[in-house]
Amino acid sequence: MKHIAVSCLLIIVTLLGCATKLNACTSVIVSGKVTPDGRPYIFKNRDTPNQDNLVVSVQSSRYHFIAIVGRQDSLNLNVWSGHNEAGFAIANTAAYNLNGRQKPGQPRPNGDEKDGNLMYHALATCATLSDFEHLLDSIKQMRGTLHSNSNFAVLDAEGGVAYYETGNNGYVKFDANDPLQAPYGYLIRTNYGMLGERTMDQGLERYLAIQDYMTRAGFEDNLGFEPVIRKVTRTLTHGLTHLNLWDFAPQDNSQPVYFPFRDFIPRWHTASAQVIQGVKKGENPSLTIAWTIPGSTLTTVAIPLWITPKGELPKVVTRNNEGHATLVDAGFTLKKQLFPIERGNGADYINLSRLINHAGTGIIQQIEPVETEIFRKAQSVIKTIRRNNCTGKETTEFYQWIDQYIKEQYQQRFGIVINAI
């Protein structure tokens, strides 16, 4: 058995030895035609070297929206996923193959900030997929180029859900409601466009991993949102090698057990994740719900967020007096236990015994029951606001409960004191 484990280690190190892009996200969009409750959703697992994220509530000139932004973006001008009160939602993955190969000596085009700023303007001004298409057309007409290299996942309150492969010269729509384009009712993207230069594809390993999950879930009629935000974001099976880290789980966490950790869906560079669940026709668009992990998916619990007239959010996910999100900070503290090696290529090696073990004391195993209780409580509140077709005092009380419950649980389970929420 030990010989097999060592052989697997050698294989995975060899396969994962090449460099990969750091801004490397994983996404899926799902039509309401195939979900259990008839509501479509978009999903993004964000990988970036800019790890420090938080959630903001923004009242723009047209629409109020909530979104994930970088902590240092004090003006909240670059959005990485979010939704607005009209039920419009957007997220992206970088598509490194859409603009062809960079010529020697040519400055790298299309900084990520341009895509982030585009998503800000989309949330501020768009209500439908058609509005988003008009925005792209307007930018192209005004600038002569879109300055983009992204797959934009877009959802609206009319049931529309699509990807827009967007390069400098234009965009192509891939509609999850179109049985010719999406015969199983969903589409997947990592870091390439289907119409780009395919020899430049990035994120193939993560594409294979999420494809395996979606194929099985589809055949089992289990394309609900909850397993995507709770399980897919923490899947420990590698898409290319099919190596499952649960097969190597140590007995306990009494001593470190390091394992190569590259190109899984969750990575050292994973900074946040969201499933944005749309509404059924006739429902209040502001009841669109963003099931949000604002930090590392391996150490941070998911929280449901929706828009309120007063712009309320749980304090643990927003800026505190020091400009940090306290839940994200708590996740960072735990993440250092998973990746304690800071020299060399330490970010490629995870302390598996601290992540999962047969004694049940791994970090994932400890946050799971906390998250389960959050989801149980949330379902009751969501049922009420959907029945009333509006938000009310239930939301305020729920967000206050979230703050207190997370504070208690992270201190009780991990000894992490969450201050000044």
Describe the protein's architecture and organization.
By secondary structure, the chain is α+β, with helices and mostly antiparallel strands. Helix content is 31%, strand content 20%. It is built from nine helices and 15 strands. Strands 3-4-5-6-7-8-9 form a seven-stranded antiparallel beta sheet. Helix 8 (363-388) runs antiparallel to helix 9 (393-414). The protein starts with a helix and ends in a 7-residue tail after the last helix.
Throw out a few tags for this protein:
alpha+beta; 6-stranded antiparallel sheet
Largest sheet: 7 strands, antiparallel
The topology string of helices and strands comes to HEEEEEEHHEEEEHHEEEEHEHHH
Structural class: alpha+beta
Uncertain segments: 1-21, 104-110
Total count of strands? 15
- Overall pLDDT, averaged? 92
Helix content: 25-40%
Distance between the termini: 48 Å
Using the CA coordinates, give the radius of gyration: 21 Å
